[in-house]
């Protein structure tokens, strides 16, 4: 609901204005480059999920490693009280990430599925903990100072902090649901690998169509979050140093995903049919 309000605000609000002339420097890792890479990683969720469906190559390990490092940056910033108005972001980031993290589960090997499922559960738990830690320890410092946009320019107050509490409760319920869903999806993936009656994954065009549909859904989900975060950065004139580790991890994420996909396509073409055991679980069908 809040996300849609942010999306509406994108069209009804005037251009960014009345920005503070004094820059508010925060912990490294939230520069424009780092933020855009973070958004790109979220957008790759459908491709990550599809790339790992029927391959023994751990194509989603890079995705989970990158997001684990991002969670570390958020936690470190919250713990050090070094996020300024970005302390308002974890609550929305948690709502989005708990859904996109599920794209890191699929794999064609039972052990890899299990490990990646545990990684996703750890990420969801860490994100939810950081969200509440920020609410409890950071937001009070921003009363009358931190600015954000929600159907108009707002300034953080005690009443808005309690609104964030209600939002956090909703997010916690969502996180619990997604943890249960991650466990269910993992079990489903393991069982369908052994079921010969499950339809094989389609050709290249069909896979691309699934990725495009998934990307459209992710844009609808992530778009309001991108606006929310960028608006906070602009309104509070936040600056940050670029974290090169994030860049390297993102490059590794994309490389691992592409290498696994190319390898499976080459194997499939070489044999003239999908590799034995390659199945497309109903949960992933469009």
Automatic annotation (TrEMBL):
Highest taxon, organism lineage: Eukaryota
Keywords: Membrane, Transmembrane, Transmembrane helix
Protein name as catalogued: Uncharacterized protein
Record-annotated membrane-spanning stretches: 111-132, 167-190, 211-229, 245-262
